[in-house]
Amino acid sequence: MKRRDLLKQAMAFAALASLRTSQAGAAETHQLAESLLGEKTAPPWLELGPAPPETRKGNMLFRKLGRTGEHISAFGLGGHHIGLVKEEQDSIKLIRSAIDRGITFMDNCWDYHNGKSEVWMGKALRDGYRERVFLMTKIDGRTKAGRRHPD
Predict the structure, then answer these.
(1) What gap in Å lies between CA 151 and CA 146, rounded to an integer?
(2) Within 10 Å of residue 19's Cβ, how many Cβ atoms?
(3) Cα separation, 81 vs 33, whole angstroms
(4) C-alpha angle with apex 87: 149 to 141, nearest 5 degrees?
(5) Catalytically active residues, by annotation
(6) 54-57 β-sheet, strand order
(7) What is the block-wise mean pLDDT of the chain (151 residues), using blocks of 10 residues?
(8) Residues near 145 by Cβ (< 8 Å), separated by ≥ 6?
(9) Do 33 and 12 meet the contact criterion of CB atoms below 8 Å apart?
(10) Contacts of 11 (CB under 8 A, 6+ apart)
(11) Strands 134-138 and 105-109
(12) What pTM was computed for the model?
């Protein structure tokens, strides 16, 4: 796929995702796909179905996470970005501030900054903060043999 095509599809995806809440939206999705992508029907990756139900607590939106039954914030905080912060204390402050403002979904991986992101997030989640979030972590590889750990 050429870069231009990828960017075109990404722009179409962003525009079309907002239309997926109704049957009328489905019809508009196909019209917009034709306009933006030059295709008569929306590509399969745009057939998203209806948007998940949302609830609001204060200024934060929450959605059910798949079949887990968990309700998490529609916005999350990724561990990769935590490791870009220069000082550990600033990273901890950032994470706790996000949680205090309603973000309940945290994502991390031990590959982020050679494990630094997981260590810093772990420190930030002390003192009761861990109980307030849904924490997801990833590993390298898709098999036990394919995984890699920084140790």
Answers:
(1) 15
(2) 20
(3) 33
(4) 20
(5) 112
(6) 54-57, 60-64, 71-73
(7) 68 58 55 62 59 82 89 91 91 95 93 91 97 90 67 54
(8) none
(9) yes
(10) 36
(11) parallel
(12) 0.64
